[in-house]
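User: Can you fold this complex?
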Amino acid sequence: MIISVASGKGGTGKTTVATNLAASVGGKVLLMDCDVEEPNAHLFLNPVFESTRTVTTPVPEIDEEKCTRCGKCAEICQFRALVVLGQTVLSFENLCHSCGGCEMVCPVKAIRWKERGLGTIRKGRRNGLEFVDGQLRIGEAMSPPLIREVRAQTAAEGLTIIDAPPGTSCPVIAAMKGADFVLLVTEPTPFGLHDLKLALGAVRMLGIPCGLVINRSDIGYGKVKEYAREESLPVLMEIPFDRGIAEAYSRGELLSENMPGWKEKFMELYRRIDSLVKREKSS
Amino acid sequence: MKIAVTSQGRELDSQVDPRFGRAAYILIVDSETMAFEVLDNRENVNSLKGAGIQAAADVHNKGAAVLLTGFCGPNAFKTLNAAGVKVANDASGTVREAVQAFLDGKLTFADKENVEGNW
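Assistant: Here's the predicted assembly.
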């Protein structure tokens, strides 16, 4: 089973929920940090890293001898990665999405491919828990191909928990698509609710069953729960606004290992997700 | 000489649009006759990426030798540079005033971008 932990708004507690869930469930579990722009799940799990490799994406290189400056490649490129100005062909490889359109329309086969580095993937483990994360190269704008490469490390069996990036755009979709369940984490604030609506819209578009965790649940804005009720979005867990939790977090500690009762709460969260997924599959 | 000026409107008395790639319009002004052509750049305004590159290619294709604007990012500057279009990024006031200031030698040519990409 694949559970993707997403949020819309940043800083709501995705990583807290993903890491604690991963550390609590037991059995064969893989935690994937797909927030490749600033991965931080490793700070809470302290895995021993066993391997690191670079991920690249192909970008075009123009063979100036063959090129006739017809401009067809620049015309088809939706990202302006190629421009023809008189006799000059400019290539902005950082803008290239590697679609290959330029090669298809080039009448003289003047497009060659070279690799642009996207970032690195690290693999490790902590006790029985397997861990993988992606780190986007500084200056790189495109994270979805790296996220997809991290996702490709998903084991055929057992539980995979994905710590998704915030937002609702392409990187988040790349971290949710194909998951069996999306666990949305929000906070009871107008901002949290605003982005929760966007996130739920994206999840529903993907047709993935989902549930909600409300973090800092007792700080007083009731409209998140109201909204969840209206949308039939089950509230699967509430985490109170608690100094002890904040302190444990600031020390990089897992609640499930350092605060009594929380391991059981995360196990219960998993059981509730599991039953929702099973119900979905049988219907 | 043809001078490209980023503009908030379609007239010579419109205000200069300080942005380049995402300017509403680009006016291509003939500095001798003050006749001008309006380039509608609004499609570029909402593009995800590469607005400056496209606007730069458009300016080049219209045969402008000089661009007067406010802010020009790295990709746009690289494109304009490759196309041989000189950039003055201290233009302000109306389009007409900017052209006059340029002709009076009051604007300076930039030798690099003056703003980061996607600002």
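The domain at 2-55+120-282 of chain A is CATH 3.40.50.300 (Rossmann fold). Residues 262-282 of chain A form the longest helix (21 residues).
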